[in-house]
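quick one, three chains, predict together pls
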Amino acid sequence: MFMENKASDGEQPRVGVYVCYCGMNIASKVDVEALRQFAEKLPNVVVSRTYKFMCSDPGQELIAQDIKEQKLNRIVVASCSPLLHDATFRKACAKAGLNPFYFTMANIREQVSWVTANSAAATKKAKALVAAAVARVAMHEALEKKRVPVHADVMVVGAGISGIHAALLLANAGKKVYLVEREPSIGGHMGQLDKTFPTLDCSACILTPKMSEVKNHPNITLWTLSDVQEVSGFSGNFKVKVKRNPRFVKLELCVACGQCVEACVFKEGRVPDEYNIGLSKHKPIYMPFPQATPASVLIDPNACLKLSRGKCASKCVEACDRAAIDFEQKVEYSEVEVGAIILATGYQLFDATKMPEYGYGKYPNVYTMIELERLVNAAGPTQGEIVMRDGRKPKRVGIIHCVGSRDKRHHPYCSGVCCMVSLKMAHLMRERIDAEVFNFYIDMRTTLKGYEEFYDRVLHDGVNFVRGRVAEVTDWAMTPGEEGKLVIRVEDTLIGVVRRIPVDMVVLATAMEAHDDADDVRRKFNISCSKEGWFLERHPKLAPVSTFSDGIFLAGVCQGPKDIPESVAQAGAAAAEALSLVDKGFVEIEPNSAWIDADTCSGCKTCIPLCPYHAISRDEQKKVAVVNEALCKGCGTCVGACPSGSAQQKLFTDQQLHQEIEGVLNYV
Amino acid sequence: MSNLSLPQAAAGNGGFEPRIVAFFCNWCTYTASDLAGISRMTYAPNTRVIRVMCSGRIEPQLILAALRKGADGVLIGGCHPGDCHYQVGNYKCLRRFKLLKRYFEQMGIEPERVRLEWIAASEGDKVQKVTNEMVEQVRKLGPLNLAEAPKPHHQAAACAVAAEGAVS
Amino acid sequence: MSKPKAGFYWCASCGGCEESVVDLAEDLIAVVTAIDFVFFPCAMDFKREDVEAMKDGEIAVCFINGAVRSSEQFEMVELLRKKSQLIIAYGSCAHMGGIPGLANLYDLESILKRVYTETESTDNPSGTRPLPQTTVPGGKLTLPTLDESVKSLDQVIPVDYYIPGCPPPTPLLKAAVEAVLSGKLPPKGTVLAPDIALCKECPRIDSKPEDLAIKAFKRPHEIDIDPEKCLLAQGLLCLGPGTRSGCGAACIKGNMPCTGCLGPVSRVHDHGGATMAALASLLEATEEDQIVSAIESVPDPVGTFYRYGVPGSLLFRKHTTSGNGGH
């Protein structure tokens, strides 16, 4: 089974080397012509060419033509990362009749030209990588991708606007969708907003129809109050275990009439209402918000006397003529198989108490933006009347941008939406209560369609704009005019003076940040996070909704801050990616699985416990280890541990790696 | 992202340019390495990256072979503990690495010549930093210059040690 | 027709390899009936001059055991190479450097210093050292010089075949002699032993669990060794998974772990590297500090994983830098 060094399949390798200019991306650093000449002299190399863009059609055609005319049987392309274009060139080989695995890439862009200051050093490094690729490719073998059937169903995790949109698209395409949401209702942050910028449509008016569509869609199974517990399997064939927490109300019976809430032994709300950011309280049995979907009440087991202490008159049960209340409901687990998963788990808002200089939590009239959204909303805690915690109506309002964003102490990134949200809110304050409004900003970021126009409109509304990062919000009055006010201290950098601006209400435009448990979630799904905690896309430009785990896609803010249109667009992209995976009916598995040579395996069992997928078992008759190819995911751990060289990994055999080592070191 | 100062070619060792073979796992460190490129983070040109699917594939023989064939140092990059794309391959790598380090201690190989780093897919800057550090450390140590092992006059025919390979 | 001529020479060797010939017992008669030993310093009185007098290639097969370090050994093996059609590296020392190869952990000067000055039983106030040449009243006396490193035989002369083991198991010797006599030899360079690891023929393999996770390694004197159970499963450092079979698991049958004397199988490039990879992978620990402490339980990695093969390993000898003279 071990081949001669000359060639992996007995025939003499005839290698073609193709060096890409990548416009000037490579050619500006690497002397590509020198590299071509170097490659030409390497053993087994029959032809060596350069081209402006190897990945273009003419570039690929060049390879195909040489395969036919020069009878090449091995191809090396020195260009960008194999993570980007491996598939492209494999296809080009296959099209010309060469097994696509007689191909390898030398990454001379991402790992040479883009990271090397000195041109001579870059050329030298590129030569080493090309030498290694040429040495390695001689050891390549013809391989075949295996096809595995996929489950047609899709799971969407998180039912904010992104998750809802993705789920609906897939369901409308005829796919069965499991939509998992941990809150009692779907809708996410968008459901809490009053108006949306820049068009000022009412958020609920555009969201609610989509929420009901989800509820009524025959292809969507909606699980609220639910969490994903475990994910196993692989692209096309995931097994997901979902924990479904009890609602203590039978969903299929409840019509959300509210009689039970009315009847509850508690006459007043007791639990801070999450939907209203604690600005109001709800009873132990409650409706999350009027348009909540599913339209059903639920019981908070910690606040309910029956559930927490076992003793209550249970007036709610009496009041419900549909007998929907069920104190016996328990946690349930559902296991489903899906072909693709879309993560749309959203974000949380920066905790404003982390910036005590702004007085949130200390001064009652300092609000976060989302609190103000609820205050101005007709369905909010004050029925839309803008009344502050002290009962007064604000006449002067200060809106502070970038709270927690663009701040090295907290989040260095820009949350992207806060400028527009702050502008929208300034407009609403002018319109609704004719307040005098000050916006404190670092830079105004209004880049997308209709945004700059909206900024202009707000400027004409008479809103005051102060450029400068606010130093402090204080109630320490220095003049009689400041008495009883909150004073915003800021350097107005446009006029170069430090100002004290007294206001009645301060509004903090807090940053979007990754969920506290984003790290746990991404581990469950075996994907990566960026340093800020956002889920990492496979490629920032060309695979923006894919992840490093095939079959798992991203939608919305869980990937990074964005506004509603962008989230919806991304959800559409994720749905399309998922659809193109599950609709095809099969996935092709990269043939990098391990195998064990039964003739030389001593049956020492070293590899068996090392496989995380239990893909290796012992053939009791032959007394050797056997890899189940369907279970093997191609990590090569068993190969690295086999003490007798009997385990090998396709595409990463000992021979191939040793050739590569030799190649990178033998270039001089 | 600030560019760390580039190693100076002549620092102490008479223009010695260390040759470092780096084994990077596909999912984390190789991706981070690509990210460093996409972000145009310049770093020392001395590493030669060999991609493997998982650091669990890396074992002492590959490291020894690299040193024997002329590397002055070996850098291994894998996913952070708990983040392995294959769940636990990086732990296997870590165990082997720790044992190999003890062997190296006995064999007089300076510990700075072999380094294992966990570098996540998002840590392009760490690729830059670790590479520059490693190159500097090895530069200070000087060339490895292993005592030349007399070449075996005969190797088992079946043993494809890939030595007399395609690159002459 | 005259019988084929054979040689049996020792270099840096303990004599165990010669013993293994005696272990042929009654089969030895068949061997000496079939071949003529023309050079066998341990057993017969032939001198170097006798070999020098032979024609090139006159010896059909010469078995050489022991590692190579002294100038005399260099001269002798080169001479024997010239006079022999086949050279068989016999035993671990000729094959991979063997126990004497562990001297490659030290430089020559410190070995000489230790031996001729420092050992507790040495009384050598003048610091006398053996000299290559000494003039005495009767004339000039010479002694061989020592090379800086110990070498395996194939690092000095071309070797045709290897018979591994410390000492080689007699069945391997017998099979090799039969192969030489019948001319049915495998490709040059082959190790004349099964190319499969020891677990294949280990009587305890069925007792090895499929979910082995080793907490810490133990040494044989530290535990009461179960005579039936896989030794690795008992925490002993058994090199069986990475060592060539052909010995019939002799040590394991004696309730002691395999120490690796037959060397690796042909697919392995570095015996110690491969066995370290296998055994370290099987540790139970996951946290870094636990891993480190589990690995501390290996008292001497070189002596454990490279006991018979420092010269034949990829590193060949302890690395010394010009700066510190190696120590």
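Chain A touches chain C at residues 2, 600-606, 608-610, 618, 623, 637, 640-646, 654, 658 (CB under 8 Å).
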